[in-house]
Amino acid sequence: MRIAVALAALICGLLAGAAPARAQEPVVNVVTFNVCGNVCRHGEVTRTAQNVARQVRDRHASVAMLQELCYSQFLRVRALLAPHGYSAVFAPATTGGQCDDRDRRHGRGFGVAIVARGTLSGRVVRQLPSPYETRPEPRVALGARVHLAGRSVLVVTTHTAPRGPNLALQLAAIQRWLVPIAAGRPVIFGGDLNSLPTSPDLAGFGAEFQEADRRPEPLTTFIPAPRKIDHLFASQRFLAPHGTSTVCGAYSDHCLYLAGFVTR
Questions:
Q1: Where are the alpha helices (DSSP H) in 131-233?
Q2: Would you call 180 helix, strand, or coil by DSSP?
Q3: All residues at 6 or more sequence positions from 146 whose CB lies less than 8 Å from its CB, including other chains
Q4: Which of 13, 99, 145, 167 is the 20 to 30 Å CA partner of 126?
Q5: Of residues 144 and 12, which shows the higher confidence score?
Q6: Which of the four pLDDT bands, split at 50, 70 and 90, describes residue 17?
Q7: What pLDDT is recorded for position 165?
């Protein structure tokens, strides 16, 4: 009996002195999705927007980056997600021939958007260089700040040129902008970068960023010729990857690409 009491006292003392277990960090779910709203969806609004909004909700996305989106489709996505606590910003890069002529300001505006659970602030739009005549469609990078996992995070998305010297110049311009910022604060960057994971044009991001999908055989994000050209990067000093997945279907020629991140 005395031995049992002594052992019990010893165990209680050890437990009392043990450090409390660290609470599990919340996972920030980030989605990037090339909606193909003009070419694949022919500018259609209702079902296209419903699919995007449902995917964002079903994946419990904290942030969604959308590319190839008509302004009219963006307005409907924003309206569908607003009751669920999401806000959204849009940046037109060019016009979509099949997009609705929505209003005097945006007309057939066609570009990229960021959707986030919570309030987006500090919207910034950067025109990307397209000096060469080979497919010189205007391109932009869209950024905004959002509060995620207790931190202010800069979120940036883009849809770069499909190939060639314009693509290299655009990725270099984004690197010059974001890599120095990522050294001192959390940044999440992604979108349709039209670049394979092994592309030398992406190498510069490795100084401060880490791509979420680190497996030897990366996930496929582009359907017609299966390959990974959509990416999600996070500043590696502040955010660590926590799993990736894709959702592919008939709504777009791209798969929805989902990544989780946890704070460091």
A1: 164-182
A2: helix
A3: 62, 63, 116, 118, 119, 120, 121, 152, 153, 155
A4: 99
A5: 144
A6: very low
A7: 93
